[in-house]
């Protein structure tokens, strides 16, 4: 078979290679799934409305919608294959778990995109050995295929430092002769990634709060321990006030993210004029623009209909992007603001000739606490949460944000907001 990213089910070849019979009964399948639940810490299976939850309580249900139809598909007659093919393709394409069926010779008979992704399977990998021996040569298909009907086995493979527990189960043909092996790969990579992100987030929050607190305590102790002239006291108090404001902004941003994450933030959508919102936002930042002697040019490229979103949310995003352009553009810079309409979305395009963002950092700028230059960000009062909040807000409102940038040339930000409910 030709194996692409999507499943190609050559039913004629499969029927020649595998003369199978479905795993014999629900008790056997139930035992297989129970064994699977014992060996895995977390099993997440999602496939449209078919896959909802896999757990011990639902093992019989899952046996009906996964293992039973998979094996029935492998042994179905030609006249039954068309409908079976459609149903199995839906299941295999949309599940986040990896599923691979090998024939008696160890060649791939069925494989879904999730399996290719989880095990990093290349187009050249066409057999059991190609896939698993690059991780562990001790995994032997011959031993698996001759397991008893009522048993399965789990082997651990390490992919990019992440351990995956792969469940192997043999299946037999009508004459009860071993016909192949099914491999089931749970998607715990996303879980581990999210867990690592959580740990990093806690560490970042601790660090970001500790820095201003340390500064405030240091300057406060200094003032309390000695006598200083009025000018020095003002300077010290200025630092304390600045760090306190920075800490307050960080806490505000964290609370905002928490509300968004927990769906506690109420989205109050309404129709409003996006062009007017941009002008109002620009007016709010007039003092900052004047301080840096920036020139701002405004353009309306089309007859823009009213947008439909949470007005306060969108203004927060626009203010954040404009503030970044003002801060990270050297004095006397040029900022161009375009408002236009394309398809069902209105858009705001903000272009500056500032310091720019390195290409390697562009794919991470929406991560929480990620900053291209931490020292520079702290100098300008940045927390590393602004763009993360902007993206979350736009996602909730059905919009989007895209950023292009070149170091030394400037940055272009495009914000899209829907015009229809």
In which order are the strands of the major sheet placed? 2-1-5-4-3
Q: What's the CATH architecture name of the largest domain?
A: 2-Layer Sandwich
Unreliable stretches (pLDDT < 50, length at least 5) are 1-65
Mean pLDDT: 77
- Give me the CATH superfamily of the largest domain: PAS domain
Rg computed from alpha carbons, rounded to a whole number of angstroms: 29 Å
| Terminal CA distance | 46 Å
What fraction, in percent, of the residue positions are helical? 40-55%
Global geometry: elongated
Q: Helix and strand succession? A: HHHHEEHHHEEEHHEHHEEHEEHHHEE
**Structural category:** alpha+beta
When the domains are counted, the total is 3
| DSSP strand tally | 12
Distinct helical segment count = 15
CATH class of the largest domain: Alpha Beta
How much strand? 15-25%
The major sheet is characterized as: 5 strands, antiparallel
The CATH topology of the largest domain is given as Beta-Lactamase
